[in-house]
Design goal:
Length: 1031
C-alpha cells in the first residue's frame, strides 16, 4: 500500500469520526463516548505518525510514537478507573438516600394510621368490633361444643342402634332356632311313633336268648370235642404206654407197684368228687343269692332313675317358670315406664311438628325466589359458555396455525409447491435447521411479516430505478426461509452460499437482528458501483447486465453483486426471509433473498402475488389468528363473570334448597315421630295391660312348679337311699358268688386230674397183668376215643354254625332295637334343645326390649343435642352479623376521620415523604446509569491500553535491525489494525447513542476507495458476494 493510499484511508477514518459526531453532540466533555473516542484518536495518531515517516527513516521514531500512544492510553485508563470509583460512591450514597426515604414514607404512613385510630369515634367503633369479635369467638366455641355433643350423641345413638340391630338379629336367630328345634322335636316324635320299640326289644331279647342257648350249646360242643380229643389223646398215650411197658409184665415187683398206685388213684378220685359236690352246692347257693340281690339293685336303680327324671323335669319346669316370672316382672316394669316415656315423647313430637310446618313454609318461599334467580343466571352462563366454546374452537385452530407458522399459511393459501419446499427433505436440504413456527425461526408469522416489510423496501429501491416491482413468489419465500435458517447457525460452513437451489439469485446477510441488510446490499454497493462508473476503469459498465458484469469484471462483481441482483430488470419474482437465531461471531439474525425470472421452471407450480395483495392476505391471516385468541380470552372473561354470578345464585339457591330440604326432612321426621310416638303410646298402654296379666299367670305357675320340685326332690332322696343299700348288698353277694365259682372250678380241675391219674394207673396195671389183652384193650379204647373225638368235632362245627346264625339274627335285631332307642334319645335331646332354645329366645327378646328402650332414650338425647347445635348455629350467624355491622361502623368511622385536619396533615406528610422517595429513586437510577457508563468506559480504556501496548510491541519488533525491508509496512499494517480495532470498540460504546460507527466508517471508506479494508469489515455483515442466477 503506497503512502497516498494509506493517507487516503486515514483521512476516510477521520471523516467517519466527523460524520459520527452529530450523534454524540448532546454528550458532555466527560461522557464515556468522548473518552472512548479519545482512545480511537490516540490510536489514529499512532497510525498517522507511522504513515508520516518515510520508508527509509529509522524505525525508532515509530517506536517513540507508539510509546507515546501507550502512555496516553494508560492516562485514559487511570482517569476511567477514577471515574468508576467516584460513580460507585455516588451509587452508594443514592442507595442510602432511597433507604432513608423509604423509612420516612413508612413512618408517615404509620402516623396516618395512628391518627385515624386515635379518633374518638374510631376508637369507640374499634371497641365495638373487638366486643363483637369476642362474642363471635364465644359463639363459635359454643357451636363447636354443641356440635361435638351432637356428634357424640348421634354416635352414641348409632352405637346403641347397632347394638339394638344386633340384638334384633340375635332375637331373630333365636326365634329361627326355636322354630328349627320345634320341627326337630316333631320329626323325632314322628320317628319314635312310627317304630314299635317294645316289640323290637322283645324280638331282640328272644334273639339274645336264642343266641345264649346257641352259645351254650356251642360251648358245650366245644368242651365235649375238647374232652373227646383229650380222651383220644390219652387213649393214644395209654396205647403207646401199653406198648412200651408190655415188656415189664413178668416183673412181680412192678406189678405190685402198679396195683398200689391204682388203689391210691381210685381213692383220690373219690375224695375229689366229694369236694366237687360240696363246691357245687356252695356255688349254686351263692348264685341264687347273687341273682336275687342283682334283681333288687336293678329295681332300686330303675326307681332312682325315674325319681331323678321326675326331679330334673320338675327342676327344669321350675327354672322356666322362675325365668318367665322374672321376665314378666321386667316386662311389666318396662312397659309401665314405656307408657310414661311414650306420653312425654308424644307431647314433644307434637310441639316440634307445629314448629317444623312453619319452617317449611318459610323455606319454600325462599327456595322459589332463589330458583328463579338461578334460572336466569344459568341461562346467561349457558350463552356465555356456548360463545366461549365457539371462540375456543377458533382459538385452538388459530393456535395450531400459529404453531405451524408459514407452513400453515402455505397450506391455507394452497401453496402446495412452497409447502413442499419448506417441509420435504427430498426437495430441500438442511431442513434440520428449520423448526416450523418457532419464535426465532424464519417460518414464524412475525418473521414472515418482517420479510414482507423487506420486500416492500426492495421494491421501493427498484422503483427509484424505474423498475417494475417484484412479485412475491411463495416458492421463493419457502426457499429463502430454508436458506435463512441454515445461514443463522454458528460455524463458518453456514456463512456462505450452499447452492442447493438452481437458477436463482440469492443475497445473504448476517447479524441483521439490529441492522438493515439493504444498507450493505444496496446503499454501500451502489456507492461502489457508482464510483466504478465514474472511474472509467470499467468500459461499457452501464450497459452490461449483471451476468455480463460477473463475466467481464468478476472483481467488481464480487463487490456489487447484491446491488445488481436487486436492480436486475430481468428478475420478476422474489422471496425474502429473516431468521433470528444466534449466528455465532456475527451476532443474531440472518437474512436471505431469492430471485428468479418468469421463464424459470419454478413458475410451473408456483403461486405468485403482487406484494401489496400478498401482504393483505398474510396480514388478514395473522390478524385472524391473533384476534381469535383475544376473542376467546374476552369470552372466557364473560364466562368467568357469568360463572361467578351463577355460582352465587347456585349457592344461594342450594342454600335455600338445603334449608328447605332440611326443613322438609325435619317436618317429615317430626310427622313420623308424632305418628310413631302416638302409636308407641297406644302400643305401650296395651302392652302394659298384657304384661300385667302375664305376670300374674307366671307367678301362679312358678309357685306350683316350686311345690312340685320340692316333692320330687324328697322322693328322689328316698330312692337314692334304697338304691345305695341294694347296691351294697349286691356287691357283697357278687363277691361271695365269685369266691364260690372259684372253689367249684378248682374242685372240677382236681376231679379231672384225679381221673386221669386213675386211668393211667389202671392202664399200667392192666398192661402188666394182661399185656396182650391190655394192649388190645388200649387199641380198642383208642379207636373208640378217636371215633368219639371226630363225632364231637363234627357236633362242635354244627353248634358253631348255629351260633353264627344266632349271632347274626341277634345283631340285626339289636341294630333295629338300638336304632329305636337312639330315636327315643334323639327325641329327648330335641326336647332338651327346644327347652334351651325357648329359654334363649326369651332372653334374646328381653335383651332386645332393653336395647330398644335404650335406643329410644339415646335418640331423644341426640335430638336434643341437634337442636342445641341448631340454636348455636343461629347464635353464630347473629354474632357474625353483629361483627359485620360493627366492622361497617368502624370503616365509616375511619372514613369520617380521614376528613379531620389531623389526618389530612399526616397524609400531607406521607405525600411529602413519597415525593422525596421518588426523587431519591431518580437520583439512584441516574447514579446507577452513570456507574454502568463509567464501567463501560473503564473496560474500553483498558482494552485500548492493551491494544496500544500490542502496537508498541509490533513497532519495537519492526525497529529491530534484523528485520527485513517490509518491516515498515508491517508496522503500518499493525497501526492500521489498531485503528480498526479501536473503531470497532468505539462502535460498541457508541451503540447507546444510536450511531453506527462501522456503518459510517464503511460508507466514508467506500467513497475514499479503501476497498481492502472495506471488504474485511463487510464480511461481518453479509456474504463476500451475491449469487446470481445462471442464464
Amino acid at each position: 500500500m503506497n503512502k497516498k493510499a494509506f493517507a487516503t484511508a486515514v483521512a476516510s477514518v477521520a471523516v467517519a469520526g466527523t460524520i459520527a459526531a452529530p450523534a454524540m453532540a448532546d454528550e458532555t466533555a466527560t461522557t464515556p463516548v468522548e473518552q472512548a473516542q479519545q482512545a480511537v484518536e490516540q490510536a489514529q495518531q499512532a497510525v498517522d505518525q507511522a504513515a508520516a515517516q518515510p520508508t527509509t527513516q529509522p524505525q525508532q521514531d515509530q517506536v517513540a510514537a507508539a510509546q507515546q500512544a501507550v502512555t496516553d492510553a494508560k492516562t485514559s485508563l487511570d482517569q476511567a478507573t477514577a471515574g468508576t470509583q467516584q460513580a460507585q460512591q455516588q451509587v452508594q450514597q443514592a442507595q442510602t438516600g432511597v433507604q432513608q426515604a423509604q423509612q420516612n414514607v413508612q413512618q408517615a404512613q404509620q402516623q396516618v394510621e395512628t391518627t385515624i385510630n386515635n379518633d374518638p369515634n374510631v376508637a369507640a367503633a374499634q371497641t365495638g368490633v373487638n366486643q363483637a369479635q369476642a362474642n363471635l369467638d364465644k359463639a363459635h366455641d359454643s357451636l363447636a361444643a354443641a356440635k361435638d355433643k351432637a356428634d357424640q350423641s348421634a354416635k352414641n345413638a348409632e352405637t346403641i342402634k347397632k347394638a339394638m340391630n344386633d340384638s334384633q338379629s340375635i332375637r331373630d336367630d333365636a326365634a329361627k332356632a326355636k322354630e328349627q328345634a320345634d320341627q326337630a322335636v316333631k320329626d323325632a316324635q314322628r320317628k319314635v311313633d312310627s317304630t314299635d320299640k317294645t316289640k323290637l326289644d322283645q324280638t331282640t331279647a328272644a334273639k339274645q336268648d336264642a343266641l345264649g342257648k346257641a352259645q351254650t350249646k356251642a360251648d358245650q360242643a366245644s368242651a365235649a370235642a375238647q374232652q373227646a380229643q383229650q380222651k383220644a389223646d390219652q387213649a393214644k398215650s395209654l396205647l403207646d404206654e401199653a406198648t412200651r411197658i408190655a415188656g415189664d409184665a413178668n416183673d412181680p415187683a412192678k406189678i405190685q407197684e402198679a396195683q398200689d398206685k391204682a388203689k391210691q388213684a381210685d381213692q383220690a378220685v373219690k375224695d375229689a368228687k366229694t369236694a366237687q359236690a360240696q363246691a357245687t352246692v356252695a356255688e349254686a347257693t351263692a348264685k341264687s343269692e347273687a341273682d336275687k340281690t342283682r334283681t333288687q339293685a336293678d329295681q332300686a336303680k330303675a326307681a332312682l332313675d325315674k325319681a331323678n327324671d321326675m326331679k330334673d323335669a320338675a327342676q327344669e319346669k321350675a327354672e322356666q317358670t322362675s325365668a318367665a316370672l322374672d321376665k314378666a316382672a321386667d316386662a311389666k316394669n318396662t312397659d309401665a315406664k314405656a307408657v310414661k316415656d311414650a306420653k312425654t315423647a308424644n307431647d314433644k313430637a307434637q310441639a316440634a311438628l307445629d314448629k317444623a310446618e312453619q319452617a317449611v313454609k318459610d323455606a319454600q318461599a325462599q327456595a322459589d325466589r332463589t330458583k328463579d334467580e338461578y334460572a336466569a343466571a344459568k341461562d346467561a352462563y349457558d350463552k356465555a359458555q356456548a360463545a366461549a366454546d365457539a371462540a375456543k374452537k377458533a382459538a385452538d385452530e388459530a393456535a395450531k396455525a400459529q404453531a405451524e407458522g408459514a407452513a400453515g399459511w402455505f397450506k391455507t393459501n394452497k401453496a402446495e409447491q412452497a409447502y413442499k419446499y419448506l417441509t420435504d427433505d427430498s426437495v430441500s436440504q438442511y431442513l434440520e435447521y428449520t423448526h416450523i413456527g418457532a419464535k426465532d425461526d424464519a417460518t414464524s408469522l412475525d418473521n414472515l411479516l418482517k420479510a414482507l416489510d423487506m420486500i416492500d423496501e426492495c421494491n421501493k429501491l427498484r422503483a427509484d430505478h424505474g423498475l417494475e416491482p417484484l412479485k412475491v413468489s411463495e416458492t421463493a419465500m419457502a426457499m429463502a426461509m430454508v436458506q435463512a435458517n441454515y445461514a443463522a447457525q454458528p460455524g463458518e460452513e453456514h456463512h456462505n452460499h450452499n447452492y442447493q437451489y438452481d437458477n436463482v439469485g440469492e443475497n445473504l446477510a448476517w447479524g441483521t437482528s439490529d441492522w438493515d441488510p439493504y444498507i450493505g446490499w444496496y446503499t454501500n454497493e451502489k456507492a461502489i458501483y457508482d464510483a466504478a462508473l465514474k472511474s472509467g476503469d470499467y468500459p461499457d459498465l452501464a450497459d452490461l447486465s449483471p451476468y455480463d458484469v460477473f463475466s467481464k469484471y468478476p472483481d467488481l462483481y464480487y463487490k456489487v453483486g447484491h446491488y445488481l441482483n436487486i436492480i436486475d430488470p430481468e428478475y420478476s419474482v422474489t422471496g425474502m426471509a429473516y431468521s433470528g437465531y444466534d449466528t455465532g461471531d456475527y451476532g443474531y439474525g440472518a437474512s436471505s433473498q431469492e430471485f428468479y425470472n418468469d421463464w424459470n421452471s419454478y413458475n410451473a407450480n408456483d403461486t405468485t402475488f403482487d406484494a401489496s395483495v400478498y401482504r393483505a392476505k398474510v396480514e388478514a391471516y395473522v390478524n385472524q389468528i391473533k384476534s381469535a385468541q383475544s376473542t376467546y380470552e374476552d369470552a372466557l372473561k364473560q364466562v368467568e363473570a357469568a360463572k361467578t354470578a351463577l355460582d352465587k345464585a347456585n349457592t344461594a339457591h342450594a342454600s335455600a334448597v338445603l334449608t328447605l330440604d332440611k326443613a322438609t326432612s325435619y317436618l317429615q321426621d317430626t310427622q313420623d315421630e308424632s305418628a310413631r310416638t302416638t302409636q308407641l303410646l297406644a302400643d305401650a298402654t296395651r302392652k302394659a295391660a298384657e304384661t300385667q296379666t302375664a305376670y300374674e299367670q307366671a307367678k301362679s305357675a312358678d309357685e306350683q312348679a316350686q311345690a312340685s320340685l320340692t316333692t320330687a326332690e324328697t322322693d328322689r332322696q328316698a330312692k337314692q337311699t334304697a338304691y345305695d343299700q341294694a347296691k351294697s348288698a349286691d356287691e357283697q353277694a357278687q363277691t361271695r358268688l365269685t369266691q364260690a365259682q372259684a372253689a367249684l372250678n378248682k374242685a372240677n380241675t382236681d376231679v379231672k386230674q384225679a381221673e386221669q391219674d386213675k386211668t393211667a394207673a389202671d392202664t399200667r396195671l392192666d398192661v402188666l397183668t394182661d399185656a396182650k389183652n391190655a394192649l388190645a384193650k388200649a387199641q380198642t379204647a383208642y379207636d373208640q376215643a378217636k371215633s368219639e373225638a371226630d363225632q364231637a368235632q363234627q357236633a362242635k362245627q354244627t353248634a358253631q354254625d348255629e351260633l353264627t346264625q344266632a349271632q347274626t339274627a341277634y345283631e340285626q335285631a339289636k341294630k333295629e332295637s338300638d336304632k329305636a332307642a337312639q330315636q327315643v334319645k334323639d327325641l329327648e335331646n330335641a326336647k332338651t334343645d327346644l327347652a334351651a332354645r325357648t329359654q334363649a329366645l326369651a332372653a334374646a327378646q328381653a335383651d332386645l326390649d332393653a336395647k330398644t328402650q335404650a335406643y329410644d332414650a339415646a335418640r331423644n338425647e341426640a335430638d336434643k343435642a341437634k337442636q342445641a347445635e341448631t340454636d348455636a348455629e343461629t347464635a353464630v350467624r347473629n354474632a357474625q352479623q353483629a361483627l359485620t355491622d360493627a366492622q361497617a361502623r368502624l370503616a365509616k368511622a375511619k372514613s369520617d376521620a380521614k376528613d379531620t385536619d389531623a389526618v389530612k396533615t399526616a397524609q400531607a406528610k406521607v405525600k411529602e415523604a413519597q415525593d422525596a422517595l421518588d426523587q431519591a429513586k431518580t437520583i439512584l437510577a441516574k447514579a446507577q446509569a452513570d456507574l454502568k457508563q463509567a464501567q463501560t468506559v473503564e473496560a474500553q480504556a483498558k482494552s485500548d491500553y492493551e491494544t496500544a501496548k500490542a502496537a508498541l510491541k509490533t513497532a519495537q519488533q519492526a525497529a529491530n535491525p534484523k528485520h527485513d525491508d517490509n518491516a515498515g509496512q508491517t508496522s503500518l499494517n499493525a497501526a492500521q489494525q489498531a485503528t480498526v480495532e479501536a473503531a470497532a470498540k468505539a462502535d460498541k460504546v457508541m451503540a447507546s447513542t444510536g450511531a453506527d460507527t462501522n456503518g459510517i466508517i464503511l460508507a466514508v471508506v467506500a467513497f475514499a476507495g479503501m476497498g481492502a479494508a472495506t471488504l474485511d469489515l463487510k464480511r461481518r455483515r453479509m456474504d463476500v458476494t451475491a449469487r446470481h442466477g445462471m442464464r
